[in-house]
Amino acid sequence: MAVRLAGRLRRVARRFHRPVRTRPVPRLARAAGPRPPLDHRWCRRGVGPLRAGAGRPRRPRPARHPPAGVWLRPLGHAHRRAPQWPAGRGTAMTDRSSVILGAYGRHLLRERTMQPVLVIGPTGSGKTTTTVHPTLLAAWDESAVVWDFKGSVTEDTSRARTRFGDVIVLDLARRGGSRYNPLMAVRPEPYLVPDCQHAARVLTEGEQEGHWRNAAFSYLTGVFVYLLTAAADSEKSLAGARRHILLGDDGLTLMLAEGIHPTAQRAAQELWDKSLALAEERGTGEGEGKGRPGGGSAPPDKSLHYRKSVYVTASVLLAEFEDPVMEAQTAVSDFSVSDLVAGERPVTLYIVARPLDARRLRRVFKLILTQMVDFLTIDRALADDGRARRWRLLVVLDEFLQFHLREAAEWIKYVREYGIRLLLLAQSLWEVEEEYGRGLTANCRLVVFRPNSSDEAERISRMVGEAIEEVPTRSTSKGLLDLFPTVSRGVRVDRRPVLPMHEALEMGGDDLIVFGYGKPIRATRLHPYADPRWRPLYGRATAAWTPNPDANRWFGAVGPAAEGGMPDAPAAPRRPGKPPRLWT
């Protein structure tokens, strides 16, 4: 009985463990004609043309093309695409208008959206050679504005930029290059006064808040309006504004003449009235009808003293234009802001400023950059001169913290809607957040190189995030007389940092991390100087920019001063209700 039962159990087990045999699918004859092409869109590995009648996908053969590039989706994930490496003859490397962030294995890591990019890394980490150089050499084929703090970017990438369009090198501290007059960017009526106020506001930013700053702002606005509408062409510049302010009351008299723009007249009248009011107020406090002690001479004219204080405050804001080279480079404009986005060809503008010149001319460069961004974010379809926009604009600012641009945090929020993309470079993440807050870093794709301090390493470790691990657990509790033990199973959730702080500090010099809206990507830096595929693209441009005569839109405006005649000096205006004080 037991033998028969054991045999039956063996037969049942053999029946259930018998391997399932399938018939091979017969291969049909291939249809006549050329073989269907492979699908290289790489949606998922293994997807390709179907066999004739088989009904199952066939694994595609590896494509024989140069290494594929890795692009970033808007969510931060990488996917493959097949660009072309730059050949020695200088062909384009990618599809149009992308920003290179580094290398991902053997592939290039690109950002093809209009999201701003913030690159953080200490000095010598390779920020410029990894992001700026490859992007300008072969990835971005539209217009660009590049702040060249060291002068090396112009020397290395300007020749390659001539393949995409024209090149302008603006060096305000050296003679012979292209010129730019910020006052020529002011639009005509009805935008004359707002644009003059815009220039005066940028020039007075950074000064201590108070009465003298406000008085200088008001007077500078009136001077700019007067020069553009009534002065000679040779005086329609910031250097001419400084000369007009240094005229003192003579310049004030010119602004009060008949036929001058009402805004300029009101600015001069306001300065005159405030000076008289202050003189009366202080004269009453000292006692009426009393002379100076120790002599019979009259007390000083306090109204003139007040006006001189305003003149000095306003002229100090334009002290850089005492330099004759600076005056010559800003007397006329060889290009306009609209040429960057509405020209026949894309334009790459290099603003060259060596460290000494950058500190000395910081206020002027800040005005130029602010004008270019603000005037190009007025209309999506048209430039500021009415021409249709044709090109997008890449703004590259290396060491942008030195400008103290309060507008940078606001630019991040809306410039992408106007076809402007920002590529910002800085040395420390803490300095950026201290200057602009976390709103700027939260709206940028962040590229972080090897940190140089424990604080930066700890911040990077927190940004990478934590990994959640589920560890199965098993516990046994013995019952009565150890005969019936109880086994309980569960899951323990452990959290650990994906990149601990010590590993962040130990990152190699070629490592970098890209943060976005998705998972962080650990990539490596590029060495284009040592790569034979990049070396032929380096060099300085030799072709010069042809000046645009339409850039000087305010030349030819005729006014009393422009005609050569000096207006009659008006009588000193009196404050209504109070007669002028008579000094004895």
UniProtKB/TrEMBL annotation:
<dbReference type="Pfam" id="PF02534">
    <property type="entry name" value="T4SS-DNA_transf"/>
</dbReference>
<dbReference type="InterPro" id="IPR003688">
    <property type="entry name" value="TraG/VirD4"/>
</dbReference>
<comment type="similarity">
    <text>Belongs to the VirD4/TraG family.</text>
</comment>
<feature type="region of interest" description="Disordered">
    <location>
        <begin position="559"/>
        <end position="584"/>
    </location>
</feature>
<protein>
    <recommendedName>
        <fullName>Type IV secretory system conjugative DNA transfer family protein</fullName>
    </recommendedName>
</protein>
<feature type="compositionally biased region" description="Low complexity">
    <location>
        <begin position="45"/>
        <end position="55"/>
    </location>
</feature>
<keyword id="KW-0812">Transmembrane</keyword>
<keyword id="KW-0472">Membrane</keyword>
<dbReference type="InterPro" id="IPR051539">
    <property type="entry name" value="T4SS-coupling_protein"/>
</dbReference>
<feature type="region of interest" description="Disordered">
    <location>
        <begin position="28"/>
        <end position="71"/>
    </location>
</feature>
<feature type="compositionally biased region" description="Basic and acidic residues">
    <location>
        <begin position="282"/>
        <end position="291"/>
    </location>
</feature>
<feature type="region of interest" description="Disordered">
    <location>
        <begin position="282"/>
        <end position="303"/>
    </location>
</feature>
<feature type="compositionally biased region" description="Low complexity">
    <location>
        <begin position="564"/>
        <end position="574"/>
    </location>
</feature>
<keyword id="KW-1003">Cell membrane</keyword>
<keyword id="KW-1133">Transmembrane helix</keyword>
<dbReference type="GO" id="GO:0005886">
    <property type="term" value="C:plasma membrane"/>
</dbReference>
<dbReference type="InterPro" id="IPR027417">
    <property type="entry name" value="P-loop_NTPase"/>
</dbReference>
